[in-house]
Design goal:
About 5% of the residues lie in helices and about 55% in strands. By secondary structure, the protein is mainly beta. It folds into three domains: about 1-30; about 40-130, Sandwich (Immunoglobulin-like), CATH 2.60.40.1120; about 230-455, YVTN repeat-like/Quinoprotein amine dehydrogenase (Methylamine Dehydrogenase, Chain H, 7 Propeller), CATH 2.130.10. Strands 1, 2, 5, 8, 9, 10, 11 and 36 form an eight-stranded mixed sheet that branches. A hairpin with a 5-residue loop joins strand 21 and strand 22 (about 300-305).
């Protein structure tokens, strides 16, 4: 009995010391960080929902308080609404998002060892028909889409509407200097490509229903929808003529739609003979002529189309390669640069004789081309190499390359900056045209793809 009593006393002395040790070394109590290899991380986005005349908008909420309940793990959302908590020990937690004058949002989360958990998007209802933020000049706009069904928790949203698993498609606006997202417009249909015109007043969004949506950015509302004869394969905005040139294709016909953007209506439809699908078309300055490429495998064509108020005619037609997908007209040098998608090459032709001046083989697949400042350089996205090639527009020769994101597909330019939409990693690379290097990249969004990028004046 005495032996047992002595053992019991020793155990009673050890237990408090052991409990004190555990208490002092518990990161959940004192918020101490754990080794990265032992912990996990948590990311998310906080947004504010505004419904205006039935249209859904989201703003990003900075300063929202984020914490794991009953622990010392906490943070606040940044200017773009994003938050991240790192070095969290594995386990189950209750995540709490708090915003002034709103009920908190909570969510059960499981942190796994060495894993990043994307907790999702947390939405606070800001108001109905509340004044929307103004669009900033120079904003970069990305068209994002989701093809996977998104599951929501609960049966109804903040508006009391029944929640269904539907893809999410959005236009996201980024600030011109910090490249931080500040506004999101939810689209009903998947965007295919975007551009802007009329000094940035209007935004043109082609969608998967063969429609062109015209958005008034001053009033932040969709003004009009124009139905096209077929799927839109390319859009080219011409500032001098204030016209938008859309290439479309259909099982029975292919052609170009010219839209007078002052009237925001269809001005003329050009239907060439059924020789193939028009994949891209650009206007010739100071002439009623258009240069276009017909994307046929092994027998792609470069065509010149002249038109007037009564008819349109293909005046020249020349074979250029294997599935040409895009082109650029360099008026300063009277050159035409054609990208052959399947042929994996770039051909530079003289406009007068349509003769080949230079042939450039590539080790990747070209997707899009855009002219640089003063047309002295051109930039070509190579989708399977994650890079943009820089060309001398006078000779057509490659003079450099710029690493960007995964599968760069879309490009636009504002003065000396080139914006590249990287489809696979849903990011936008900003290139300084003077230095020919990436100076910034937007954060990846919670979507499956980016399907277009444009920039406002």
């Amino acid at each position: 009995m005495r032996i047992k009593s002595k053992i019991t006393k020793k155990i009673m002395l050890i237990i408090p010391a052991l409990l004190l040790f555990i208490f002092l070394h518990n990161p959940l109590v004192f918020g101490e960080t754990v080794k990265k290899q032992d912990g996990g991380a948590l990311r998310g986005v906080v947004k504010g929902l505004i419904v205006n005349n039935g249209q859904i908008y989201y703003t990003r909420i900075p300063g929202a308080r984020v914490n794991l309940e009953f622990t010392k793990f906490k943070t606040v959302s940044g200017e773009d609404g994003r938050f991240e908590i790192t070095n969290i020990p594995p386990g189950n937690y209750m995540l709490s998002i708090n915003m002034e004058n709103h009920d908190p949002i909570t969510k059960q989360v499981e942190i796994k060892e060495g894993k990043m958990l994307r907790s999702g998007v947390f939405v606070f209802l800001i108001g109905m028909n509340k004044k929307l933020p103004s669009i900033l000049p120079g904003s970069i706009i990305g068209a994002f889409m989701s093809v996977k069904e998104k599951k929501n928790t609960g049966n109804r949203n903040e508006l009391g509407h029944e929640i269904k698993d539907t893809p999410l498609n959005s236009l996201i606006f980024y600030k011109p200097d910090t490249y931080i997202a500040y506004l999101e417009i939810v689209l009903a249909d998947e965007p295919a490509m975007i551009t802007n015109g009329n000094s940035g007043r209007y935004l043109y969004v082609a969608n998967n229903r063969n429609n062109l949506e015209i958005w008034d950015l001053k009033n932040l509302e969709r003004e009009k929808i124009l139905h096209m004869p077929g799927p839109i394969s390319d859009m080219e905005w011409n500032e001098k003529r204030t016209k938008l040139y859309l290439s479309f294709f259909h099982a029975e016909k292919s052609g170009i739609v010219i839209i007078d953007t002052k009237k925001r209506d269809v001005a003329r439809i050009i239907i060439p003979p059924p020789t193939g699908q028009i994949t891209s078309a650009v206007p010739v300055e100071d002439e009623d002529a258009i240069m276009g490429v017909i994307g046929r495998p092994k027998d792609g064509r470069l065509v010149e189309i002249r038109y007037n108020s009564k008819k349109s005619t293909i005046t020249r037609n020349r074979k250029v390669g294997d599935l040409p997908i895009d082109l650029a007209y360099i008026g300063h040098f009277q050159n035409i640069i054609v990208l052959n998608h399947l042929g994996r090459n770039i051909i530079t032709l003289g406009r007068d004789k349509m003769d080949i001046k230079f042939y450039q083989a590539l080790d990747g697949t070209p997707a899009r081309i855009i002219k640089g400042l003063k047309d002295m350089k051109a930039y070509v996205s190579v989708i399977d190499r994650g890079q943009v090639i820089v060309l001398d527009t006078e000779t057509g020769r490659k003079i450099g390359h710029i690493p960007v994101g995964e599968r760069p597909c879309y490009m636009c330019r504002r003065e000396g900056l080139i914006m590249v939409g990287n489809r696979a990693d849903r990011s936008i690379s900003i290139i300084d045209g003077a230095l020919d290097k990436v100076i910034a990249m937007t954060a990846r969004e919670d979507f499956d793809y980016i399907n277009g990028v444009t920039v406002l004046p």
